[in-house]
Amino acid sequence: MCEYFNRVKTDLEELQNFVAETFKNNKEKIEVAKKSTKGTKARAAEEAKNKQNLSIISHFANTGENIYKNLNLSVINGSYVQNENFEDKIRECYKLIDNIKITIPESEEIIDQIDGFFCRILLHSLKQYHYFAHSFQVSITSPDKLFLLSDIEEEKKRKNNIATDLAVLEPFHDIFYYNILISFIDKNFSLNTDTLRELLDIVHKLKNNKCNEEFQIYCEILIDKCTLLILKFRLKYDNEDLFKSLLISHDFTDEEFNPNNLKTEYLKSFQDIISKLYSKDNEESHEYFNSYFQKNQNKRNLTFTDYFIYIRYYSKVEKNIKEIDELIKQFENQYGKSIVSKFDKFSYNISINYLYNNRISFLTTEKTDINRIDNLFKEIQQLQTRTGIKNYFPFYKIARYYSDFINRNINDKKGNKNQINDALTKLQTAITLIERNLEWTARLSIRPFQPNYDACCANTKIGETNFNIFIASAYVVPVNYTYFQKELEKLKEEYLVHKSVVKINEFVEATLSKEHAEIEEALKREHDYVEEAHDEAKESQKNNIQILSVFAALVIFAASNIQVFRSVETLKEAVIFMLTLAYSLCLFAIVIWFIVSYKKVKMSLAHYFLIGALFLGLLFSGLAIFTNWGDTPITFPQTNNKNKKIDLNIDTILPQNASQVNIGTTTTPTVENNKANFQTPPLREQKQTTKSLKQY
């Protein structure tokens, strides 16, 4: 994996041996030259020395060029990614460079050239590489850490005015610097105009480099990396006015920036993927998803790229939650426990969060029950705690769901108020998590999906050799944080509106409840008053009914008694009739009393007396019926005159026998005859008979 950097170490070791042997022999020659006299030998020794110095410088220049070639290939290939002891290898190179400087005697004039134009330049490049490799490893092992300062700029290469062939290493150093700079941008890639400006500047400088033809291929690869990153701006930004307003100006020559004309050669596979995945034409994207799935559906060991495309296929095209869950489970089983590399482990943690992001995005619809969203909320928090990735996107989707849920149900009188209050609380929590995680993600430039090392490499050929070009962001386009910052502000505003509406509803409800309680209490008092008045009226009505019933009974009793003597012949019959009628009327009065007083019947002394009287009347009636009491006939009163007897025939009283009355007859009818012939005339006829008798 460190093939190219190991070559650098081998070249430095060879230089160390070369210097040691060269200056050891050179020391002996110097001693010989000092013993010799001036003349031909001295000049020959001086010329030999200069020739040797030129040979040493030429050897350093050739070896230095080869070292920079391998350094560039090492960075382009990503040797620093998979090797945990990569920094130790760089430190070994530091020691080798120091040994080279120490081996050269200070008395040698060439030491300034080797030190100034080789050792310092190469040491500066290695420190750049060391700093980048160190920051890269820290970023994947401790994502919360962020470097603020670097001491690389303090190690400037020292420029001398001495003309030397070692100056040819400066262009190689510059290319390597741009190589490291592009890797920095790629690792922390974000969509902002400063990054875009820096990429365009690097492209311009790489196109105008002064390296030899062998180094041109490395420059082309680096230009392709810049071009791919620039294309991601075009694919992510919806507003094309940003690019129409940009100008590229170099040496007073202005050129409009047109990202549609940008193409890559060595990274064409990545360009094709992102152009299809992030196409604004949904039909084109869906067609690509379908074709990719059909082509690879029988594939057993899926790559990170396969999972990245499959999850989008299941969530956007097929829309099958069951397949999404199965895909996540398969990803966890395949990569969850088998990963050894720190970078691949870091990639797995980010990617599993991305798979869950698609799942949540699919589930957070209006049709989903809020209880399931609550469970998703807890599930995502646990996932982020386990992976250490503070992803903002799931909380954004959950917050959007809660806000829409509250908006739909906040004015529903039949809605569950506790559920709305709970959703409001969770909306606030989600907004807090979005704000925290969005700042964390933007500060550290965490991508939504991170392919592993193999998926970040594009296969190409350099000459006849197969070569992998490592680009950390690969086919993944970073997040447009400006958009989500605006969405976060919208959610905050919606939360404040929802909170205000809930408070207003609670206040109105409390006010109405208080007024309702007061009104209800007043109505209750009025109701009690009405009930009391109604009871009084009802009681009065009962009394009136009882009085009227008793009065009616008395009237009926009196009226009936007037007629009693028309139908009875003896006192016994009269008493029986009167008592029977009186008893019946009393029962009638009692029934009326029970009817009007059935709810609260209280027996008083009067009631007991009345019952006793009725009982006595019943006994008296029984005596009258079953004894001979009262058998005396009832007759009209007669005038008894001892000196004068009147013979009154009953027939003469009747109107039809009035002409037959015999006056002056001295014969007195017997009692039996009178009894047999006696009939009580009606009251009107009695009065007429009495009047006739008086006239007579």
Topology of helices and strands:
Elements: H1 3-35, H2 40-77, H3 79-82, H4 86-103, H5 110-141, H6 169-187, H7 193-207, H8 213-236, H9 241-244, E1 247-250, E2 253-256, H10 268-277, H11 282-296, H12 304-318, H13 321-335, H14 342-363, H15 370-387, H16 393-409, H17 417-444, E3 457-462, E4 465-470, H18 481-562, H19 564-567, H20 571-596, H21 605-626, H22 650-653, H23 671-677, H24 683-695
Antiparallel strand pairs: 1-2, 3-4
Helix pairs in contact: 1-2, 1-4, 2-5, 2-6, 2-8, 4-5, 5-6, 6-7, 6-8, 7-8, 8-10, 11-12, 12-13, 12-14, 13-14, 14-15, 14-16, 15-16, 16-17, 16-18, 17-18, 18-20, 20-21
Walkthrough of the structure:
With 696 residues, the chain is mostly helical. Helix content is 70%, strand content 3%. The protein is built from 24 helices and 4 strands. A two-stranded antiparallel ribbon has the order 1-2. Strands 3-4 form a two-stranded antiparallel sheet. Helix 2 runs parallel beside helix 8 (213-236) and helix 13 (321-335) runs antiparallel to helix 14. Mean pLDDT is 78; it is low at 154-163 and 638-696.
Number of helices: 24
Q: Order of strands across the widest beta sheet?
A: 1-2
Poorly predicted parts: 154-163, 638-696
Order of helices and strands: HHHHHHHHHEEHHHHHHHHEEHHHHHHH
Main pleated sheet: 2 strands, antiparallel
Radius of gyration: 62 Å
Number of strands: 4
Structural class: mainly alpha
What would you call the shape? rod-shaped
Q: What's the average pLDDT?
A: 78
Share of helix among residues?
A: 55-70%
